Amino acid sequence: MRAFLVISGIVLQIAALHAQVRLDVGTSVGFTTANASFRQLPGFPSCCPSYDGGSGVGGQFSVGVDVPVLDALFLSARIALTDRSHTLTTTEFTDVVVGNSLVQGAIEHTIATPLTEVGIETSLGYRLGSLVVRLGGGYAMRSFGSLRSREELTAPSGAVFSDTRSSVRNARTGDLAESITSTFYGVSSLGFDIPLNRLRSWRLTPEVGMAFGFASMTSVADWTIVVP
């Protein structure tokens, strides 16, 4: 999925005035937001009451082309390689015994998810002066790394689980069961062209945008990602 918050791209005009085909090469930093609703995954034992969401930061590299349709309207196609790795995190507050006293403790449940996506997208774009608006969709292939899950007793300081005699338990590494390795997605962006030479043949185009996938990460749980 092509999902980004900020893109710095170079746009090259290679055709005549009023009929400009533009090639672009871009790089970005994306802030992934995960939405989930499950307690545990197969192969990853957990006492988590519910995994509800998480976040991550990753980079993207893309190449694309804009083909004019009318004076201000154009069709855009891009191929992107994106790091969508993120970590689901839930903090559970519970009573723990320290000495002979009952105090409030905190258990942090995490699932770290390495994820790389290769996406192909098309969109309809509109130019209004230096402003560039795109709206479209695409298809992405997903490649998952090994998931890493754990539960850590983070408070009070020095507290340990009675079964492991340490502050960590249920530490597991493994593959995501029933992973969904592709998804369709929607995308939108707003950019601003900054000419880099007098002929305006080279341009820098910072963009902000949003992307959202339609498929869950796995068929055994509700788990999607969005980038606002």
Model description:
By secondary structure, the chain is an all-beta fold. It has one domain (6-227). Helix content is 0%, strand content 67%. The chain has strands at 6-13, 22-38, 51-68, 73-83, 86-98, 101-113, 115-128, 131-144, 147-155, 168-174, 182-192, 194-195, 202-204, 207-213, 222-227. The chain has an 8-stranded antiparallel barrel with strand order 2-3-4-7-8-11-14-15.
Overall pLDDT level: 89
- Tell me the overall shape: elongated
Helix content: under 10%
Distance between the termini: 13 Å
Which structural class best describes the helix and strand composition? mainly beta
Largest sheet: 8 strands, antiparallel, barrel
β-sheet strand percentage? over 45%
Helix segment tally:
0
Number of domains: 1
The multimeric state of the shown protein is single chain
Radius of gyration: 23 Å
Strand order of the largest sheet: 2-3-4-7-8-11-14-15
**Helix/strand order, N-terminal first:** EEEEEEEEEEEEEEE
List how many beta strands DSSP finds: 15
List the helices and strands and how they pair.
Layout: E1 6-13, E2 22-38, E3 51-68, E4 73-83, E5 86-98, E6 101-113, E7 115-128, E8 131-144, E9 147-155, E10 168-174, E11 182-192, E12 194-195, E13 202-204, E14 207-213, E15 222-227
Antiparallel strand pairs: 1-2, 1-13, 2-3, 2-15, 3-4, 3-5, 4-7, 5-6, 6-9, 7-8, 8-11, 9-10, 11-14, 12-13, 14-15
Short key terms for the protein model shown above:
228 residues; mainly beta; 67% strand
